[in-house]
Amino acid sequence: MATFLYKLGRLAFRRRHFVALIWVALLTLAGVGAASAPPAGSTSFSIPGTEAQKAFDLLEQRFPGQSADGATARVVFKAPSGEKMTDAGNKAAVEKTVDELADGSEVASVADPYTGNAVSKDGTIAYASVRYDVSGMELEESTKHALEDAAEQARESGLTVEVGGDALQAVPETGATEIIGIAVAAVVLVITFGSLVAAGLPLLTALIGVGIGVSSITALASALELGSTTSILAMMIGLAVGIDYALFIVSRYRAELAEGREREDAAGRAVGTAGSAVVFAGLTVVIALVGLAVVNIPMLTKMGIAAAGTVAIAVLIALTMIPALLGYAGRRVKPAGAKGGFLGRRRRGGKDGAEKETGPAKANLGTRWASFVVRRPLAVLLLGVIGLGAAAIPASDLELGLPDDGSQPTSTTQRRAYDLLSEGFGPGFNGPLLVVVDAKGSDAPKNAFTQVSDEIEGLDGVVAVTPPAPNKGGDTATISVIPDSKPSSVQTEDLVHAIRDAGGDIEADTGAQTLVTGSTAMNIDVSEKLNDALLPYLVLVVGLAFLLLIVVFRSILVPLKAALGFLLSVMAALGAVVAVFQWGWLSGLMGVEETGPVMSMMPIFMVGVVFGLAMDYEVFLVTRMREAYVHGEKPSQAVVTGFKHGARVVTAAAVIMMAVFAGFIGSSESMVKMIGFGLAIAVFFDAFVVRMALVPAVLALLGKKAWWLPKWLDRALPNVDVEGEGLRTADERGSGPDEDRELVRT
Asked: Is the pTM of this model over 0.85?
């Protein structure tokens, strides 16, 4: 592979005009596609195989024309202090608002509070339910403005008016912190390279890659029903890996220049060596993201595939556009340690700008740290494991759920409407359960409906049960159940299971099937489905990556150590997420206004993304160690050599990735905020504790055993030559990789 990538790097360097033209054309094409694409429509949230989804599908069949997936809104009214909503003036204002809402072109129905029993017992709060013909993402802006205007006119009469539901849902905003994250990345690159030109290359290529990826997602959003969160997550991951992959290749290019190579040859060797690591690191990320499909939740599958596509683009750009831009930059990108660098020693003389040391080189920080770890490996290992174990303790209290209006900032009208409804009708009113009774197989459907209703009324935790509402055929009925606990609570989850258990007994007696659905039940089913899928997903992704790393490192213990270290870092990151978003530690600093359950898909999504990113650092750092080992160095010295060449760049890459992820903490979308924080803290734990401390400690303790591989397996495995051994051997023989055909291994 190294030889093939070497040729690709040299070709891109020579044909830089052609390469640049191709990528600019792709960016333009994607941009035109995004600009001309129709707006994204409904993003259906289906969960195949769950009871909630089965009930939802049954509703669409048995209750046609009711816009089961249409947007909804609750306009909540609160009377001024000392007044009631039943007072004549307040009642007139509400009825006027209801009439205005009913005139909307996309409105399916509006329920009057006074005829629909939607006034609180104390008479201070009332609400009007509005149902639309289309989903929230498909609503026209004029319809949303009409809803907001109606609420504003009602406020002018002295009432407190807020609007809840999904009719006013907006595309999540990431905030200014995203720009700050990119700015931090730019500063780190300038410090690392000591040159604005060299620092600008990774940023430029990453932005081009993300531009192509996100524009493509936007262009396909309507056809594939991709939500706005999909493009944000693709941007988040694409920026991080795009900058990092380019960083490693540019760093290796400067190192090759420092050895006196011509620029074209240096570009080829940088792509052949660091580029090989980029390919395998990117492949592990793609495996982890595409593997999300095993969960069988279409939305999660689409998010994973879209992000994986952006990662693949980042890899291709790093392998082709970086050497092309290095050709344009010429002598403005200096050799490592050359004059003008912030972090290197000044050199003089040498071929093509490379400079010779004027004195003995002082050991860099990476070398000194690795030497310290090699001398005290057991102490470093124990300290790191204990520290990560302590950080993981909060994960034992992990509660899962999906965000609702109760997790919105208090500045939003949706959150204020949620609080008013809780105040007037109880916390469970914001998460009603919809029970669907399928009596098609029953001899007495009406009796079955009544029996289900009576059984639910007798359960603990139930505040109210509406009378059964049968369809025209009389074989199916719906029953609304109001719990006495908030939607995301454990008590509500227990109630859902209690209703389903009671339904089993009723089916045995009457032949009628009882199904529970609604947003609350849907969230509970999602959480359980994700929990059940976590172990198979771990086995699949870690297993495939383990096999891939065996091929890369030609070792059994090194990939095993990499996987175990990843588990430590991801558990510690989950503990941090629980501490902040569930317990409320540092919640003010993170902009978390409401604590509660951790988003259901957070653990499995974090496992997928963090595993891929963790393997990045493993590949980049350990390939340098193996490169030194196969060239004859002792195992402990190979660890030090690997840190000498790779620690600074890995550190810079980790800081950049943390900055990019942390930039999304400012998002208005609670899911994006949580993922940004979780990934940033996970990268910190994995890069600076696992890869920088535990990895050298374990390798020092294992010695030569770390690189052991059974002979039969060594013969069976393909030689992918990630370390560029073929390039070095050809160089030692005095023939270039192009001439030494026996050394070509791809």
From this structure: no
